[in-house]
Amino acid sequence: MNSQEKALSERLELAIEAAREAGRHTLSYFQRDSLQVDRKSDDSPVTVADREAEQLLRQRISVEFPDDAILGEEFGEQPGTSGFRWILDPIDGTKSFIHGVPLFTNLVGVEWENDSAIGVINVPALDECAYAAKGRGAWHLRGDEPPKPARVSTCEQLDKGLFLTSEPEGFANRGVFDTFRQLVEAAWLTRTWGDAYGYFLVATGRAEAMVDPILEVWDAAALKPVIEEAGGVFTDFKGDPTIYNREAIGSNGLVHNQVLAITRQVSGDEGRS
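^ that's the sequence the OP posted. Answer follows.
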């Protein structure tokens, strides 16, 4: 194992451990009537669980890899010099979390020289986790069972598959609701088991495509390595494999062009500043 492989392996180990620790911490607040919900400037909800989970992650990373950069949803950017950058979403799906719905996740992504290299999608309330490092495959954990390979489905037709999104309102807010309507018409089933949980279902072979018209880099960073290493494809609406364009498609790869045939009709800047 060369030095770069060793560095990646060490960070993957921490990413899994820290994501699951953050998940356990968020569960201490889950389904508590006394949980206070605040509103951020964009009117999205945030709780003490979000903030404390990110602080926990930042502390673990800073102790073990003090030269790594960190970007988190709640506390912004911390520069680094190593070439690695951690990208954190302490609770993805806060709306689910505050309503006592178990489909929220803890997301930990790691970039190496501006390329998504590591991803962890932890689903603490269901005691499941998917993780991946570039070139090392994707893995699925359930409880205390040994990890098993995470693989996308083999369904080749969207009209026989499951299409997921976080909420139809996202398409409406961006002014592209017809894109959502066309995806619904093209798919066999549509559900809003969304946020990162939808991509988790794609990576573990339980859905064929997940589409988000609006999302941030901390929503996307952990997803791309997991989807790709599970055998799927992760792109923006034009088909570019990026986490930076504030939109995403994660699929099993086999239906990806069918989804792109619909999303490529969007110019790329509707409803976004």
